[in-house]
Write a structure and sequence with these properties.
single chain; 133 residues; mainly alpha; Arc Repressor Mutant, subunit A; two-stranded antiparallel sheet; 5 helices; 2 strands
């Protein structure tokens, strides 16, 4: 399940993208517009800043803007940044693979096959840029 942290990060980035004529945009403005708890959003924005997705601007008219081209930001990259692996099981993760403890034979495991199929269909959707949403 998608965490609130990842969901709010995506909402905040989409808000900044949709309001680029007003950048920098303050956490307060995003928080109020998107109904995201202020302190929680501050933490999320700090994570996005540390990962060089956004940059902060100081001062009375300070706030945030993109540090990289928004077309290069995918939903998948934000979900991974906030939540870790996208796969629903460790044995289907592309970047964080681990064999399941109880698995006897991955090649014939029907549960793995289901979640591998799901991941295969889900990733192309999540790999879309935030500019395409």
């Amino acid at each position: 399940m998608l965490s609130r942290k990842a969901k709010y990060a995506i909402k905040a980035l989409l808000f900044i993208y949709d309001h680029q004529d007003k950048i920098p945009i303050s956490v307060k403005e995003i928080s109020e517009a998107k109904k995201i708890p202020y302190k929680f959003l501050e933490s999320i924005m700090n994570s996005l800043k540390q990962n060089r997705i956004i940059r902060s601007h100081r001062g009375s008219k300070g706030g945030y803007s993109f540090a990289i081209e928004p077309s290069g930001i995918t939903v998948a990259s934000i979900v991974r940044m906030m939540d870790g692996p996208i796969a629903l099981t460790t044995c289907t993760s592309e970047n964080f693979y681990e064999k399941c403890e109880e698995c006897i034979d991955e090649d014939t495991c029907k549960v793995r096959r289901i979640f591998l199929d799901l991941r295969t269909q889900m990733i192309p959707v999540l790999e879309r840029s935030i500019t395409d949403l």
